[in-house]
Design brief:
Length: 265
Amino acid sequence: FRYGEVSEVVVSTPNQPVIFGQNHPLVVVAGPCSVENEEMIVETAKRVKAAGAQFLRGGAYKPRTSPYAFQGHGESALELLARAKEATGLGIITEVMDTADLDKVAQVADVIQIGARNMQNFSLLKKVGATGKPVLLKRGLAATIEDWLMSAEYILAEDNPNVILCERGIRTFDRQYTRNTLDISAIPVLRSLTHLPIMIDPSHATGKSEFVLPMTMAAIAAGADSMMIEVHPNPAKALSDGPQSLTLEAFDQLMKEMVVLGKFF
Ligand code: PEP
Ligand code: MN
């Protein structure tokens, strides 16, 4: 399997080439769950950049449990991500859910995200892999490590070595106090099996902003290469995932605490 081959993922962004991998400084991806309007995405981009993030995240196409929940602004949100990129030089990470949107997403995204719910959408994996663009592959809600690595292999098999694995919490039995359970043990397990870069998303894992900082610290201690953090200028008004989103100020604080742990800057 190609997932066992030595690799690091280099992503060119307007500001700089960013390297994801074990022997490189921690990479931070931050931004709102959904791109809501120009003002909020540009403001968030500027603030997370000032705090030290290298990538802006933000959903245009959102995989929502309810068909009546906000589904993302789609194509117009991609345009807003392009403006935030122009304003800051940050790299852009955004999700593609449907192969029909792939060309449009690939035009603005420096890294294409495959969400947890699509981890085993094999036709999507093949087509995204074939673009040659870096791919962020989130772990499925109930995927084993082997399932996950096999999904990565679908992308690698398209001759695209640029896969980043993202642990975002798995389903266990407690839905009251945490949204999912962050599988910290996945980090050393993956290290023993693959050289692919490992990202941790403590926001979707916990579902609660007050638990994001301790889980970020735990993930860095366990050896994660990169972090994905949801940040919103006004979490109480967010159109999706407000409860787990950090304010801009809380994100500043988190970045300061991460510097203390080293492996950063
Ligand atoms: C997201 O990153 O906004 C998202 C929907 O994540 P996941 O696929 O991990 O639920
Ligand atoms: Mn979200």
